[in-house]
Amino acid sequence: MPLESYVKFRAEWQRSPISPDPRDLQIINRIRSSLKKRGMIGALADGCGYGNISLRLLDNTFLITASATGHLKMLDMSALALVESADIAKNSIVCRGLRIASSESLSHAACYQSNPFISTVIHIHHAELWKRYYSELPCTEVSAAYGTVEMAKNIAEIVCRNTLPRGRILMGGHPDGLLSYADEPDTALNLLLEL
Fold first, then answer.
1. pTM of the predicted model, to two decimals?
2. 68, 83, 134, 185: which has the fewest C-beta neighbours closer than 10 Å?
3. How many domains does the chain have?
4. Mean pLDDT across the chain
5. d(CA 109, CA 77)
6. What's the CATH code of the domain at 91?
């Protein structure tokens, strides 16, 4: 599936290598491996990847798994992107990396911009959990599709209403999509595994 069919934001993308802290790559791979073996991150038969992980760096900049990397067993630096800025209202991001940032970058940015204590955001797909928790978890509007400004705005509203820098969100307009965020990577992971 071509990237342009599922990346919905406008990107100022500098295609160049990035060199994040190797410890951040280790954290991402550890979390990703745990979710990948449960089928919560991966790739469809047509090659379209699903699920992504990000870590806040400075202010609202963050590392995120790049688009079209769901099929990879382990990630290296070339499978990450650095989102340097995100303007939700303008549906745009500025990013660097050998691959473009995840199609859900605006959703991740919404979390970081809404709470300065959030350090990690994880987005997974799981049809059974999505159905089971549809009426229990905070939920975005059904009309807000994945990767859109509307989805990001809905997420920001939910995060802002929460008094803690951690939580789970069911993506109403993105069947199968769930998101967790927290002030520690393992907390964000455990919020999903506890389901």
1. 0.94
2. 134
3. 1
4. 93
5. 20
6. 3.40.225.10
